[in-house]
Automatic annotation (TrEMBL), chain A:
InterPro entries: Adaptor_Complx_Large_Subunit, AP1_complex_gsu, ARM-like, ARM-type_fold, Clathrin/coatomer_adapt-like_N, Clathrin_a/b/g-adaptin_app_Ig, Clathrin_app_Ig-like_sf, GAE_dom. It is found in: Cytoplasmic vesicle membrane; Endomembrane system; Golgi apparatus. This is AP-1 complex subunit gamma. It holds the Pfam family Adaptin_N. Keywords: Cytoplasmic vesicle, Golgi apparatus, Membrane, Protein transport, Transport. PANTHER family: ADAPTIN, ALPHA/GAMMA/EPSILON. Belongs to the adaptor complexes large subunit family. Residues 652-765 form the GAE domain. Its main location: membrane. PROSITE patterns: GAE (PS50180).
From TrEMBL, chain B:
Its main location: membrane. One of its GO terms (cellular component) is AP-3 adaptor complex. It comes from Synaphobranchus kaupii. SUPFAM superfamilies: SNARE-like. It is a peripheral membrane protein. This is AP complex mu/sigma subunit domain-containing protein. Residues 1-147 form the AP complex mu/sigma subunit domain. It is found in: Cytoplasmic vesicle membrane; Golgi apparatus.
Length: 770, 193
């Protein structure tokens, strides 16, 4: 067995290794030697071996065989061995290892050792890796040490208590009385530990919080002492007296003063004093000021103080030091919800920070800008955000795009602006947008009927320029397919006129189909668009036919299926082609579409009703699918899956309320189930006249904060003479618990003529059986 | 709470790593690598705060770092710590190391990792700041070292002899002293305990 080398020798040898392999070899030899040494019973150099092992562990090599050695060393009477043993325990052991339980007894003995350094070792280890059981066992010891006379031990015991409270919150009550008495200590280290302990206790339990509110005057005294005292060399950092302690006390005051007038009053003067007297030219002063500002904004402070605080933040924002700017933006982020106007004043500076070189500052500026968007500044702010998007670091891109979309959805001043913005984002950063952007955009375009011409021209131009951004290409293909006739028509008031021939359009779509860059979904879009154009163009139908038949033998199964079906449309079902491929109906029209009722409530009952805003129903789960995407007319998969959502038909004993009765058609409302925030009702249509009712459809609208989801109806024909019924289940989600009202529009055909009526339901029947 | 304290050099080699939450060894190495990757890309005049580390904790955590010559000192903290306070703490830590090692350089940290751990243990305990007064820390560390030395007894004599000789201010000794059996007059070695 080669004699073991000392730690420093070993480090020297490791460092002189030229390659990774050489290093591994050296370390393996050393570890083997160490293992052999551990197996020997008594050995003078045990601590050195463990130290070597810890070094090896730091470099990343496995060191678990040292765990038992740690336990043995901790039990040794010699201080040097204990020290290394405890260090090893902190680095190698954790609560998941069994060996950690073995050191509990050693720690317990060491906590009552005569030497304070041994006690401190034990406290340190317990605070770092103490498991819940160990904490429970040793908590009384720690509490005793909290009242010990030695300030060195007291401060360590205080932090150890914090760890215990984190692991086992119930033990918090054990420490509350001692924590209170620690506040009268003079030693800053002990005070610091006490404040941390009290902070942790208050955060865990509201009762303790109420108890410690009485300590606010004491804390204010201590703080005053720190601020007003002259120069004290031992605690001075850059001219501020113990800024660490000041920051901790301010944070505790923040927690105590939140939502409490009495406590807030007591600290008002102090905060004003600190805010005005602290010198912020160095980091230490800035740290204290920053904490003061956060505290002022969080408690119930008087308005003059709040103004002072926001001004301080504004000054920070203009500081040259990037650290200070970063900090001020972080704190503005915290108060932007409550004091929106105050932060708006600094919008210019924040937007400038978007152009800073520093990635962290950019990130903060982005978050803050997104929070500051409002209806008033949306145009200018969006310009800045789009500029930022074109040069922002890649890790921030997806966050930026989702932020821009959210802001655009909430505050878009006009539909054209909205569409322009989304198109701009797609051209700049199409690869980083969310998946549901494409269907959302398509839905938006569909509703903006007067902009179809403009949109399709713009998208065509974007498609011709660049086909690499998948989302953009998908939307463009869909639009060209739908509104190809507008594109070929030529004139459009909003953009410069450009003559687009049918060949150009088909060329563009074919390029997308054949390009390597197109994802399979994109090619699907392009193929369907080509097919739709067959009814919209006049001359090149043969070309379309040939394109479609080529893809009938494509390797991609999805494309192949589509191509084969379209081929069939050309051959056997040519008479249906025009009807199948006609333009998608706008949302909310009367055409009976039982499959689409899950998402058809836009524009529903006109804008004349103020209190009831038509709410688009929450899009149903997967079955609804990407509704506007091409293949809906051809493949029948979208509608069929919804039939599984019919819901149960109720037993006839539940109470029904008749809400509509006319022409023999009766509509009744029945409550199926009800919880605090949601209600499920069934609308049942029955027919007592002598002729069948066909095309029976129901549409509903609810107040703004309520969410509506209509399941598919059981059918749309009600046979005559009460021989059958049509039932439709409606789910209402009412998280804000507003009074529920619903407006239902009934439409049906009877005896060849169509009828349509609206009925308002103001009260819902209760449920008899729960 | 401080989640981890890392010291590594300009090439990413770890010089000291202390984790206050448990991670497996592989994860620890990965964290060190990722942190080095993030921190080394930073310019000289940007701010000292970094966000966006995926491995160590996620969205609540920030990296606060300072670059001194060849070493990066990185503290990974969560939102309950004051960022500027931690910056000052790093400064205090480095100044303490400087006092304890006398003009500390990277080699000191390499060869005396355990001492660095002991000093750190006096400043940060269980992820929380314990003591920030430099003199107090140095006093405690010295007392502990003295205790260790006094225990070492006979077994520690050769080591202490070596360190005593190293610390001595010897005048320049000529190299080739060995000229047979002639006894050489050596300077008086101070007696030591």
């Amino acid at each position: 067995m080669s004699p073991s080398v000392r730690l420093q020798e070993m480090i020297r040898v490791i460092r002189s290794a030229r390659t990774q392999g050489e290093e591994r070899g050296v370390i393996q030899r050393e570890c083997a030697a160490i293992r052999a040494q551990f197996r020997q019973a008594d050995n003078g150099g045990r601590s050195h071996n463990l130290a070597k092992l810890l070094y090896v562990h730091m470099l990343g090599y496995p060191a678990h065989f040292g765990q038992m050695e740690c336990v043995r060393l901790i039990a040794s009477p010699r201080y040097s061995e204990k020290r290394v043993g405890y260090l090893g325990a902190m680095m190698l052991l954790d609560e998941k290892q069994d060996a950690s339980l073995l050191i509990t007894n050693s720690i317990k003995n060491d906590l009552s050792h005569s030497s304070q350094y041994v006690q401190s070792l034990a406290l340190c280890t317990l605070a770092c890796m103490g498991s819940a059981e160990m904490c429970r066992d040793l908590a009384p010891e720690i509490e005793r040490l909290l009242r010990a006379s030695n300030s060195y031990i007291k401060k360590k015991a205080a932090l150890c208590a914090v760890h215990i409270v984190r692991k086992v919150p119930e033990l918090g009550e054990l420490f509350t009385p001692s924590a209170r008495s620690l506040l009268s200590e003079k030693n800053h280290g002990v005070l610091h530990g006490a404040v941390v302990l009290i902070t942790e206790l208050c955060q865990r339990s509201p009762d303790t919080l109420a108890q410690f509110r009485k300590a606010v005057p004491e804390l204010v005294q201590v703080m005053k002492g720190l601020v007003m005292s002259g120069y004290s060399p031992e605690h001075n950092v850059a001219g501020i007296s113990d800024p660490f302690l000041q920051v901790r006390i301010l944070r505790l005051l923040r927690i105590l003063g939140r939502n409490d007038d009495v406590a807030s009053d007591a600290m008002n003067d102090l905060l004003a004093q600190v805010a005005t007297n602290t010198d912020s030219s160095k980091t230490a002063g800035s740290a204290v000021l920053y904490e003061t500002v956060l505290t002022v904004m969080d408690i119930k402070s008087e308005s003059g103080l709040r103004v002072l605080a926001v001004n301080i933040l504004g000054r920070f924002l203009l500081n040259n030091d990037r650290n200070i700017r970063y900090i001020s933006m972080t704190s503005l982020q915290k108060i932007v919800q409550t004091d929106h106007n105050a932060v708006q004043r600094h919008r210019g500076t924040i937007v400038d920070c978007l152009k800073d070189q520093d990635a962290s500052v950019k990130r903060r500026a982005l978050e803050l800008s997104l929070a500051l968007v409002s209806a008033v500044n949306i145009r200018s702010l969006m310009k800045e955000l789009l500029l930022f998007l074109s040069c922002c670091p890649p890790e921030l891109r997806s966050h930026t795009t989702s932020g821009i979309f959210n802001a655009a959805e909430r505050y878009a001043p006009s539909q054209r602006w909205h569409i322009d913005t989304i198109l701009h984002v797609l051209t700049t950063a199409g690869g980083d947008v969310r998946d549901e952007t494409v269907p959302n955009l398509i839905q938006l375009i569909t509703t903006a009927t007067e902009l179809h011409c403009y949109t399709v021209h713009k998208l065509y131009r974007a498609l011709v320029t660049d086909i690499s951004q998948q989302s953009l290409v998908q939307v463009a293909c869909w639009c060209i397919g739908e509104y190809g006739d507008l594109l070929l028509g030529g004139e459009c008031e909003e953009t410069e006129p450009v003559q687009v021939t049918e060949d150009d359009v088909l060329d563009a779509l074919e390029t997308v189909l054949q390009s390597h860059m197109s994802a399979p979904a994109t090619r699907g879009f392009a193929l369907t668009a080509t097919m739709k154009l067959s009814t919209r163009i006049t001359h090149n139908v043969d070309r379309i036919r040939s394109i479609v038949s080529i893809y009938g033998s494509c390797i991609d199964v999805e494309l192949q299926q589509r191509a084969v079906e379209y081929n069939a449309l050309f051959k056997k079902y040519d008479h249906m082609r025009a009807a199948v491929l006609e333009r998608m109906p706008e949302e909310g029209t009367e055409t009976p579409q039982p499959a689409d009722q899950v998402c058809d409530l836009l524009d529903l009952l006109g804008g004349s009703d103020e209190p009831l805003q038509p709410r688009p129903a929450a899009p149903g789960p997967a079955p609804a699918g990407p509704a506007p995407a091409g293949p809906a007319p051809v493949s029948s998969s979208t509608g069929g899956d919804l039939l599984d959502l019919l819901g149960d038909l109720d037993p006839p004993t539940a109470p029904c309320v008749k809400v509509y009765e006319k022409n023999g058609v009766t509509l009744t409302l029945q409550c199926d189930s009800q919880t605090d925030t949601s209600i499920t009702v069934s609308l049942i249509g029955s027919n007592s006249s002598h002729c069948d009712i066909t095309n029976f459809t129901l549409q509903a609208a609810v107040p703004k904060s309520v969410q509506l989801q209509m399941k598919a109806p059981s059918g749309d024909v009600i046979p005559a003479d009460g021989l059958g019924q049509v039932t439709q289940t409606v789910l209402l989600n009412n998280p804000n618990k507003v009074s529920l009202r619903m407006r239902v529009r009934v439409s049906y055909s009877a005896q060849g003529s169509t009828f349509q009526d609206t009925v308002q339901i103001d009260s819902f029947p209760p449920v008899t059986c729960e | 709470m401080i989640k981890a304290i890392l010291i590594f050099n300009n090439h990413g080699k770890p010089r000291m790593s202390k984790f206050y939450e448990h991670y497996s060894e592989d994860t620890e190495q990965q964290i060190i690598r990722e942190t080095f990757h993030l921190v080394s890309k930073r310019d000289e005049n940007v701010c000292n705060f970094l966000e966006g580390g995926m491995l160590i904790g996620g969205s609540d955590n920030k990296l606060i770092y300072r670059h001194y010559a060849t070493l990066y000192f990185v503290f990974c903290v969560d939102s309950s710590e004051s960022e500027l306070g931690i910056l000052d703490l790093i400064q205090v830590f480095v100044e303490t190391l400087d006092k304890c090692f006398e003009n500390v350089c990277e080699l000191d940290l390499i060869f005396h990792v355990d001492k660095v751990h002991n000093i750190l243990a006096e400043m940060v305990m269980g992820g929380m700041v314990l003591e920030t007064n430099m003199n107090e820390i140095i006093m405690q560390v010295d007392a502990q070292n003295k205790m260790e030395k006094s225990e070492a007894g006979i077994a520690g004599a050769p080591a202490r002899a070596v360190s005593a000789v190293k610390n001595m201010n010897l005048p320049e000794i000529p190299r080739n002293i060995n000229i047979g059996d002639i006894s050489i007059k050596v300077p008086n070695l101070p007696s030591f305990k």
